[in-house]
Design brief:
By secondary structure, this protein is mostly helical. It is about 80% helix and about 0% strand.
Length: about 375
């Protein structure tokens, strides 16, 4: 939501490009840490209690972000906000895993992903309007009020999907669950290959937004509108996935998604080499990549977490953590790169999709499929 305001924070905090870019990196780090921990915690405390904790953290940190004038404190609060946001995301996915199986689970995860990306586009557009008519503090005020609404919804509307009577978290059980999942290795590979495409949108929200506003003089409102288009692409891809999964196998959809991603990466690298740049040339490959990611992500996630029925929270956490950690690393690298030559942006996108394509090997998918059949038997 506040990505259209990021270039303007240079003047607010009187710092350079890197410290401002790292405010996004800090959020992703907190998001990844929470993803790693809160799934296992919710396996022991229950989903609803855990949901209330992380939503409260997000609300408080959003409120405090309006009050600071220090870039260091701002970055730390973004880290705390990420802890809340990541916890909400993993518990939502875990709750879906609690109640669905097979292709129905693919549809459930696809709806979760559609909601995620659609909200990113909608709120990016609202953030662009806020920057035109207000300032970045109103972004965090909106986040605070919105998260309070979520908190009330969890209290009164959310039904527990994983009842537990534990009043505390067993660290030993926590570590055992994670160690058993990590030992198989496939979940981490599927998570990295299926989730790193998310970093394409992160790269655009940082490096692309800086380039468009500083070099092509695109307005924050237009940056927000691009978010709407990106969200529409993900909704299209997610809806297409929900239709195709009725007729095609999950592994085939993974292949289609990674090929579309690769095409988008090649197009982004090629267009970034042109001497004359336009919004369409920069944004079009990103939109194609988002469609590919919409097809790829829920299918890869199902292949990764489907065998882990009893530790669904831990499995969802590890999957989400790996995705967010890859996003964190990408934004960390972006903070060190110059944004003025757009060729750097194309190179980042191309590198991301190549990693995804190479990791999701057919042999890995076949092996995972066989293991799932054996455990079911």
């Amino acid at each position: 939501m506040y990505s259209p305001s990021i270039p303007y924070l240079l003047n607010v905090f009187h710092v350079g490009y890197a410290p401002i870019a790292y405010t996004m990196t800090a959020y992703l780090l907190g998001y990844a840490i929470s993803m790693l921990c809160m799934g296992g915690v919710s396996d022991q405390l229950g989903r609803k209690k855990s949901y209330l904790i992380v939503t409260g953290i997000f609300s408080i940190s959003s409120l405090l972000l309006m009050t600071t004038s220090s870039i260091t404190v701002f970055t730390l609060l973004r880290l705390l906000q990420g802890l809340g946001g990541g916890g909400c995301a993993v518990i939502a996915r875990t709750s879906v895993r609690d109640t669905r199986e097979g292709k129905d689970l693919v549809k459930g995860m696809s709806y979760i992903s559609i909601a995620f990306y659609a909200s990113m586009g909608i709120f990016q557009y609202l953030g662009g309007l806020i920057q035109v008519y207000g300032n970045y503090k109103m972004d965090f005020l909106f986040m605070c009020l919105f998260s309070l609404c979520v908190l009330l919804s969890v209290i009164f509307l959310f039904e527990e999907t994983h009842h537990q009577n534990n009043r505390s978290v067993s660290l030993r059980q926590f570590m055992t669950d994670y160690a058993n999942i990590i030992r198989e290795k496939r979940l981490v590979i599927l998570a990295l290959g299926g989730g790193i495409g998310y970093a394409i949108l992160l790269a655009f929200n940082i490096m692309g937004a800086f380039y468009l506003q500083k070099c092509l003089h695109v307005s924050p409102e237009t940056i927000g509108e691009i978010g709407i288009y990106c969200a529409a692409c993900y909704v299209f891809g997610g809806t297409l996935t929900n239709y195709l999964v009725k007729h095609w196998e999950i592994d085939l959809l993974i292949k289609i998604g990674k090929i579309i991603l690769l095409i988008a990466g090649i197009a982004s690298l090629a267009t970034s080499m042109l001497t004359t740049q336009t919004i369409v040339l920069i944004v079009s490959p990103i939109m194609v990549g988002i469609i590919g990611q919409a097809i790829l992500y829920p299918c890869a996630m199902i292949r990764a977490i489907e065998p882990h029925r009893q530790t669904a929270g831990a499995a969802s956490s590890l999957f989400g953590f790996t995705q967010q950690l890859s996003g964190f690393i990408v934004t960390l690298v972006i903070g060190c790169l110059p944004y003025q030559p757009i060729a750097w942006f194309g190179g980042v996108i191309f590198s991301i999709v190549c990693i995804s394509f190479l990791l999701l090997k057919p042999s890995l998918l076949m092996e995972q499929c066989e293991n799932t059949r054996c455990q079911t038997t």
